[in-house]
Amino acid sequence: MMKLSLDLLVRTALELQNREGLDAVTTRRLAEQLKVTSPALYRHVPSKEALFGHMVAFILAEALAAMRPCDDWEDWLAEYARTFRNGLLAYRDSVRMMLVGLPSPRTSNELVPAVFEPLTGWGFSHAEAVAAEGVLASFVLGWVGYEQNPALRPILASMFDIDAQFERNTRMIVTGLRQELGLPEARRTERTA
């Protein structure tokens, strides 16, 4: 029998969520799957909302690890939106989970600063980095919320190419951020293959 850890608990909860949906993620079901008692789970997470927060951190960490290197802040913000979206889409009901989850210490102390660091490195103030990430994350969460809604996704797909429209909307947001924050247009550099 494996020793129960936070990582094992989070991975098991995400697998259960992907198979059966967020509503299936209960302490009773997790305890059954992990072959432990429900109180053993509470040694690692004090509540279901805290567990969801750790699950969110796992998804965010995966998304940040999947980002490709970028030459400038505009490209980085677009890549962040893209990988954040893909990370959320990889897990059923992920937007619902994010809306009810409590921020984990990993999210607050490691992941959020990892999002702001490249932007401040390109000359954003901390407040500008917070504003840029907040606008983009809100857009991505709303967009993926529509995509994860089984009734809305076919309607969206009948109106436009979902992926192409996501890219277009992301570019519009980045352009708007540049104008609103008074930032210069990023200088594009040739990439080597």
Description:
- The chain is an all-alpha fold and 193 residues long.
- It has a domain at 48-181: Tetracycline Repressor, domain 2, CATH 1.10.357.10.
- Helix content is 71%, strand content 0%.
- The protein has ten helices and no strands.
- The protein has helices spanning 6-20, 27-34, 38-42, 48-66, 73-89, 94-100, 105-121, 126-147, 153-159, 162-181.
- The longest helix has 22 residues, at 126-147.
- The chain is globular and about 55 Å long.
- It starts with 5 loop residues before the first helix and ends in a 12-residue tail after the last helix.
Q: What's a concise summary of this model?
A:
With 193 residues, the chain is mainly alpha-helical. It has a domain at 48-181: Tetracycline Repressor, domain 2 (Orthogonal Bundle).
Features:
mainly alpha, Tetracycline Repressor, domain 2, 71% helix, 0% strand, globular
CATH level 3 topology of the domain at 48-181 = Tetracycline Repressor, domain 2
Helix count equals: 10
Structural class: mainly alpha
- Largest sheet at a glance? none
Number of strands: 0
Spans of at least 5 consecutive residues whose pLDDT stays below 50 are 188-193
Backbone shape = globular
Arithmetic mean of pLDDT: 92
Helix content: over 70%
| CATH class categorisation of the domain at 48-181 | Mainly Alpha
- Would you identify the CATH H-level superfamily of the domain at 48-181? Tetracycline Repressor, domain 2
Which CATH-level-2 architecture of the domain at 48-181? Orthogonal Bundle
End-to-end separation: 47 Å
Portion in strands: under 5%
Rg from Cα: 19 Å
Order of helices and strands: HHHHHHHHHH
